[in-house]
Please model this.
Amino acid sequence: MTAEIPGILYRRAPAITPVPLVFDSPHSGTTYPDDFGHAVPLSILRKAEDTHVDALFEAAPDHGAMLVAARFPRSYIDVNREAADIDPKLLAEPWPEEVPPGRPRPGEKSKLGVGLIRRLAQAGVPVYDRQLGVEEIRARIETYYRPYHDALAESIDDLHRRFGVVWHVNCHSMASRGSAITPDGDAERADFVLGDRDGTSCGPIFTDLVARALGEMGYAVKINDPYKGAEIVRRYGDPFRRRHSLQIEINRRLYMDEETREKNAGFDRLRADLSELISLVASYARAALA
Model:
C-alpha cells in the first residue's frame, strides 16, 4: 500500500508481516515546485539531489519495512535541517519572533550556504538572484517540511509503540569527492559512510552490523567520517529508549553519472546488494524481537 501526497512525499507500508524497521530518503526528490524561482541553471541545482536513492531502497517494504521518500528537492527546502536553521543573508525582511519557527538560529550549514533553504548551489554559485520573504519560507515549511517529518515521525513512533524498539535508516548519497562547502574539502570518499553521531543516535551493534555487511560485500566503509548524521537522525535517534537511527551515505560513482544523473552500469548490482542488506537488517530486527 502506498500513501502519497503528490509532489511532496510517499510512504510505502510493509508488503509482508511488519518488522520495526523504517527507511527514509529525504533528498531523492526531483519534482521542482513552480514557485521555486531559482536563478541558477537546473543542471547545477540538481547536483544537490540524492538522485535514485529511493529506487535503490525500493525493496524495503518487501522485507517488512516502511519506506518514506520525498518528492521535492532538498535545494528547495532541506528536511535534514532544523526548521530554524535559516540563513539571515537570504531574508528580505526581519523574521518576527512570534512567527514559527521563531527567531532564525543559523548553524554551521547555514554559514556554508546550505541551511534549511540553500543560499549556494555550490561554492560561489548562489541559488537565487533575490532574497526571500518570511511568508515564502514559512509556506515551504508548512507545505513540505512539516508533512515529511509528520509522516516519518508517525512511522517511527507507531512501530516503537507496537514493538518497544525501532531501527531507522536515513538514506543518502554523496558526491565522489568533497568540496569547499563539505567537511572533508576536496577529498576522495569511501563507497559508504555511516553516521551515528558518535553513537548518540544509534547503538554500536546496529552500526557495526551494517558496516560489516557492506565490507563483506567488498565495499570500503567509513563511520562518522566525514558525515556523522544531521537533523533527522539527531531528532529520531535515542538508543537509550531503543530508538536507533543510522545515516547511510552512498558514493554516487557506484551507481550513476554524477554529471547527467543517469544510472550507470553499477546501479543494478548496488540495488541488489542493498536489497540483501535490507534483508539482513530485517532478519536482525526479527531475531531481536524473538
The domain at 2-289 is CATH 3.40.630.40 (Aminopeptidase). Strands lie at 2-5, 9-12, 21-25, 66-70, 120-122, 125-126, 166-174, 192-195, 221-223, 243-251.
